[in-house]
Amino acid sequence: MLLLSACLSLQSEEQQAEAAEKALLARHDELMAQMGNLYTLRQQVQQLPDTARVARLQGALLGAEAGMMFWMHHYRKPADTVAVTRRMAYYAAQQQRIDSVGRLFRSSQDSARLAQPAASSTSPTR
Question: How many domains is the chain partitioned into structurally?
Answer without folding.
Answer: 1
